Amino acid sequence: MGRNIPPFAALRAFEALVRHGNLQAAGNELGISASAISHQVKSLEGHLGAKLLVKTDNRLKVIEPGLQFASELRGILDEMEAAALKVSLPRKTGRISINLFPSLAELWMIPLLARFAEQYPETSVTLVTNPEMVDLSGSDIDLAIQYGAEPSGAYKSIALLQETITPVCSPTFLARRGQIAQAATLLSHPLIYCASAPDEWRVWMEQNKVSLGDVRHWLEVDTRSAALQAAEQNMGIAIGRRPFADLALARGSLVQIFPRPTVTGMTYFLAAPARSWSARNVRIFSTWLAAAAKLDNPFLAIENGMSAASSHAGVHSDR
After folding, report:
1. Torsion of CA 101, 102, 106, 109, to 10 degrees
2. What stretches of 140-237 adopt beta strand conformation (E)?
3. DSSP annotation of 106
4. In contact, 73 and 15? CB cutoff 8 Å
5. Which of 58, 137, 218, 295 is the most exposed place for a label (fewest CB within 10 A)?
6. How far are the Cα atoms of 4, 151, 240 from residue 142, in angstroms, in the given order?
């Protein structure tokens, strides 16, 4: 007796529709029209003898049987893709794509990639930046760096590092203003407010038993990169979040005002769908990044190595 499996085109259409939430986006992914997606889903419902979606207020809504079916179907499609990758001919040059926040790419990942490129020159990396987390299922992205209290249950996840926050400023700013010994003293200094994390000063102050009150921030910016750059330019005190401030702290363009950073309870995870994890270059990169992230500050070793190399070169040039 043959397998009672619905048409594959109908399965793909339904999974894409549930993931995107509308017919047009699902059709764009699969290269067919919205009406073709609708036809495929109706065909699937007919094959199963079960209703998967209902239409309310001119919108399609996935009902409980459809939600359960879509969840299991997504996992099966990921496993099918992973199986295909295992038997596919290996590429001469490995390529991986990574989704992450724009500021995280600029301030942390790109500087780290310089070291990865030295060690693994045969692997090409594509960074796909997005201010929101993306759904890896059905996309061609191999890995994503995700932020949260818990890892996503939909993917294989590796905990990279715990987020910490601490006030930072430039050495010049600190020298001009004098040593800041108590958290409450910060209120008398210009603070840099980052709109992408509007509660960070309040969280840090509360954990250090200081009432933030009605502080009039001297400078407001909308990105993490801009906040740290403003602090480097002696414009005030910013919240240094790990890992965004790692490179500036390693280079000495920023300094921690207090010795102990505050743990926020949030973590950065490296997430990979099943289809990606079977690829050797993805596993190599994941292992390398996890090892780098476990260091207190991976850029300290890099910067110290560069300084030693420069000093060594200087000795020879004097001879």
Report:
1. 30
2. 143-148, 156-169, 192-194, 219-221
3. I
4. yes
5. 58
6. 32, 17, 29
187 vs 204: CA distance, rounded Å: 12
Q: Are residues 216 and 74 in the same domain?
A: no
Q: 283 and 223 in one domain?
A: yes
Task: Identify whether residues 157 and 268 lie together within a single domain.
Answer: yes
Question: How far apart, in whole angstroms, are the C-alpha atoms of residue 278 and residue 295?
Answer: 26
Non-local (6+) Cβ contacts of 234 within 8 A are: 169, 170, 172, 173, 176
Residues spanned by the domain of 64: 8-87
If we measure between CA atoms, which residue out of 60, 124, 61 comes closest to residue 93?
124
| Segments in 138-239 forming alpha helices (H) | 171-177, 200-207, 224-232
Whether residues 49 and 151 share a domain: the answer is no
DSSP state of 195: T
Domain boundary among 27, 61, 87: 87
> What is the pLDDT tens value at each position of the chain, 319 positions in all?
678 899 999 999 998 888 878 888 888 878 899 899 999 999 999 999 999 998 887 788 889 988 889 888 877 887 776 676 556 545 444 789 999 999 999 999 999 998 899 988 988 999 999 888 788 876 789 999 999 998 887 788 899 999 999 999 999 999 999 889 899 889 889 999 999 898 999 999 999 998 877 665 679 999 999 999 999 999 999 999 999 999 999 999 999 999 999 999 999 999 998 778 878 889 889 999 998 888 878 888 655 544 443 343 343 333 3
Domain shared by 111 and 178, yes or no: yes
Domain closes at, from 87, 122, 148: 87
Question: Whole-prediction pTM value?
Answer: 0.68
